[in-house]
Amino acid sequence: MLxxxxxxxxxxxxxxxxxxxxxxILSVMGIAFTKFLTMQNRFFERETNAKTAxxxxxxxxxxxxxxxxxxxxxxxVDSASADGRILRxxxxxxxxxxxxxxxxxxxxxxxxxxxxxxxxAAYDGYAWRDTTSGRYTMVGNSxxxxxxxxxxxCTGNGVGQAQLRTVSVSGRSxxxxxxxxxxxxxxxxxxVFFWQKITYSFAASGIFPGMYGLWRKQEGGRNDxxxxxxxxxxxxxxxxTGDDTSRTVVPGTLGNIRGVDLVLSANSPRISAGRTxxxxxLVTSVFFKNARKY
Length: 294
Prior knowledge:
Layout: H1 16-68, E1 77-80, E2 86-102, E3 105-110, H2 115-120, E4 125-129, E5 136-140, E6 146-147, H3 152-155, E7 168-169, E8 172-173, E9 175-180, E10 191-204, E11 212-218, E12 223-230, E13 235-240, E14 257-267, E15 279-287
Antiparallel strand pairs: 1-2, 2-3, 2-10, 3-9, 4-5, 4-10, 6-9, 7-8, 10-11, 11-12, 13-14, 14-15
């Protein structure tokens, strides 16, 4: 009688060596994948922070340019600091024409203006343009303009009346106003503008300790921090008549300043791991568009 031969059962698992090799391979792959994700996250964080810094610089540029482009290039700068961090300018916010004189006051016909712009402005004085030199004569600390007592000085067609028609644009109407008497009595139709005194400065930030903020102060109003943070390199540089490069030193005659370089050295509020700062520097030139006749 034959007895069947006993055979061994097939292997049902892995050996210890095989498991160790698999774990090593998986560990290496896991470390590589983790390192890749970490690098990608850091790259994304750095790019985000750099974009934030660029946005701060660009938004600051847009805010400042809205005011500075309106400044006249002859006497439009009131003061500037030697370190380039403070600039005070006369910013026009409403234009019109001189009509004539009545009862010791000058009547002016002002063009339509946005009500929000006029409402937010702080009247500090007026200026009138000399048609011969093209320069404006600034008159400050004058009484706030009021509705003209005799509008016909502007609209009438009689002797000594300007025959200027008040216009309306997009539902907004012009105004005929009385201002303190203009000394020198210009010809009817002479350009007039109302101005406010605005100070821009790079000063210690109230939001970001140890950094600078861009501040805007309206004469007689609040000093508001617009944007930040900036580092110590943020400043103004100046163009004088005839310059093709900006000056770091304030020109001896402020009345000759006709534009500025905005050096906006902006930082991101957040700093990526392994870095000391995240910043960008934007330099742009702004020339005063309210130019005199050459």
